[in-house]
Write a structure and sequence with these properties.
Structural class: alpha/beta
Oligomer: single chain
Number of strands: 18
Distance between the termini: 66 Å
Helix content: 40-55%
Shape: globular
Strand order of the largest sheet: 12-11-13-14-10-15-18
Strand content: 15-25%
Radius of gyration: 27 Å
């Protein structure tokens, strides 16, 4: 085959268009050599990582291997040191005599293969795999070796209590440092939001929260738990000598070129300290646009019209972990222009946004939401974002700020859009002030999306039709589980929304202190689609399941 660039090959194979190729090449030039062609084309959404890897394998005449389903030989893995595997993003997957099969995302980089040949003394056969699957395999395979090393290094000490100096010295040893680092890396690659390290009498369980559910990552011996907790407390800036009271801390870690902001919380339990780690994506991860929030076309138009209002209050509501902050950041990204002054007050600041003034709440120093908000209003803002309306004082100041010509964005914890309006009045804000300042309310939830590879079709029954508010049976899908989705049946999440736009009719009802049911009826007449209507559409489209519909919208 002619030796043509991969981009030209993709065009000839009708995988991308000439216009898309030009855009990718331009974006690659903009990155000034920091990104490869494959990374850019996947980032821009023109091809999936797997499709690009398969196309590249076809062009280079190198076998493509799906590491998610391939049985990796542990003996082969041990031939390449972990440091080299991580440095070059490679992993040995099979061994036959003196021949070592090595998975790489860059099979024509002969320097890497030569390095491996020198270290192992074996002939290397390259196969092509995706970078993310290689990183996941490195995390999975080398983690077990790290746990064995930790157990060996701790066996000399037994499980007796050491003094603080010995404890500190012990946890600085390489195996426990590697284990702590690897746990965060594996969690990030699995797209987890939280890590739970839970001590029990005979073992310690480590679970990660993926798509809202906790799944087990690994179990380690109880001897490891104390050293692991001390290591995490040490890097988080906590007091390692204090084990009787809860503590909070934070640290940062770079994983696959992305800097993570990691928040840590420790809680004393009967078997030791339970550690929960929250992984926050930093500003290096691109902000979502409002078109990427998973809104239906109808809801998107309503949301966009609300953002055009020059002043007033817009609230996003939902339970913890329902994506409220992501929606607020996307809204800010849409309305924060160079000619406006945008100030936020958050707890914590989750993403650093260029061109926006962000304040961190610090209750110990007296920097509460209400105190920060009073100061912000003297800073000549055009747009103010409040992380959360936690008390009546904050709500009152925010409403007054909106009446005096500012655009205020904030969140509240309520079950739906109509009850948010009632909650504001319950918090002590006068109904007439809510009526004149409120632009609208967006209630949202996150629902799990079915894995397209293993979902199973069937017809809905009468009970399910009632839940979806339809009369005739339709084709719906059940979750099954396959290697592609880690046997969960789901892959990723999307948001569902319920938007009430406060038009003149609804504002009149608010001023009259109308109840939740009256507001909901008026909103429906105005065209509001409830959360259940949204998720019912997704079930009928085959994107989620009836189980998810019940989980996110069921009420007594």
């Amino acid at each position: 085959m002619r030796n043509i660039p991969i981009g030209q090959y993709l065009v000839e194979q009708n995988m991308i268009s000439n216009e898309q190729l030009e855009r990718v090449l331009f974006a690659q030039r903009e990155s000034q050599g920091s990104k490869r062609f494959g990374e850019v084309i996947v980032e821009m959404g023109y091809m999936s990582e797997i499709k690009f890897a398969q196309a590249l394998a076809g062009k280079l005449k190198v076998p493509y291997v799906d590491l998610a389903t391939f049985k990796i030989d542990d003996e082969a893995v041990s031939k390449i040191p972990e440091s080299l595997a991580k440095k070059h993003t490679v992993i040995a997957i099979d061994i036959v005599g003196k021949r070592l099969t090595v998975a790489t995302d860059d099979p024509i980089n002969f320097n890497i293969l030569e390095d491996i040949k020198v270290i192992t003394g074996m002939d290397t056969i390259p196969v092509l795999a995706t970078r993310s699957s290689i990183n996941k395999a490195i995390g999975d395979k080398y983690t077990m070796a790290n746990i064995d090393s930790v157990n060996e290094s701790l066996s000399a000490f037994g499980t007796e209590n050491l003094n603080d100096e010995e404890s500190k010295e012990r946890v600085e040893s390489a195996p426990i440092v590697k284990l702590a680092t690897t746990i965060v890396e594996n969690a990030f690659r699995a797209e987890a939001t939280d890590i739970h390290i839970e001590p029990f009498k005979t073992f310690t369980r480590i679970r990660i929260r993926v798509n809202g559910d906790l799944i087990e990552l690994m179990s380690v011996s109880s001897a490891v738990q104390s050293a692991l907790a001390t290591r995490i407390k040490l890097i988080s800036g906590m007091n390692i000598a204090e084990k009787r009271i809860p503590q909070d801390g934070r640290f940062s870690q770079v994983v696959d070129g992305t800097e993570l902001d990691v928040r840590v919380s420790s809680l004393p339990t009967v078997n030791g300290e339970k550690i929960v780690i929250r992984i926050l994506s930093t500003g290096q991860i691109a902000l979502r646009k409002i078109t990427d929030l998973g809104m239906s076309e109808y809801n998107y138009k309503m949301f966009e019209s609300m953002l055009k209002c020059p002043h007033g209050v817009m609230l996003v509501t939902g339970p913890t972990g329902s994506g409220k902050t992501t929606t607020l950041y996307a809204a800010l990204g849409e309305i924060a222009k160079p000619n406006v002054n945008v100030v936020t007050v958050e707890d914590p600041v989750e993403k650093n946004i260029e061109g926006i003034n962000q304040c961190q709440v610090n209750s110990k120093a007296g920097m509460t939401f209400s105190a920060a908000l009073r100061s912000i209003l003297r800073q000549d803002p055009d747009i103010v974002m409040i992380g959360e309306m936690r008390d009546s004082e904050t709500a009152d100041i925010a409403i007054r700020a909106a009446i005096t010509g500012h655009l205020v964005l904030s969140t509240l914890h309520t079950n739906d859009a109509a009850s948010t309006i009632v909650r504001l009045i319950d918090m002590g804000v006068a109904p007439y002030m809510v009526a004149t300042s409120l632009i609208g309310v967006v209630a949202q939830r996150l629902v799990k999306v079915l894995c397209p590879k293993c979902r199973r079709p069937r017809m809905s029954n009468e009970e399910e039709n009632n839940l979806m508010h339809i009369s005739a049976p339709v084709q719906i899908f059940d979750a099954v589980g396959c290697p592609e989705c880690n046997n969960t049946g789901y892959k990723g999440r999307t948001a569902i929304h319920e938007i009430i736009h406060c038009t003149s009719g609804i504002s009149t009802l608010i001023a009259e202190s109308a109840g939740k049911e009256q507001l909901e009826e008026a909103a429906k007449r105005n065209g509001t689609r409830l959360l259940r209507d949204n998720v019912s559409e997704l079930v009928q489209q085959g994107r989620t399941t009836i189980d998810e519909l019940v989980r996110v919208t069921y009420s007594v």
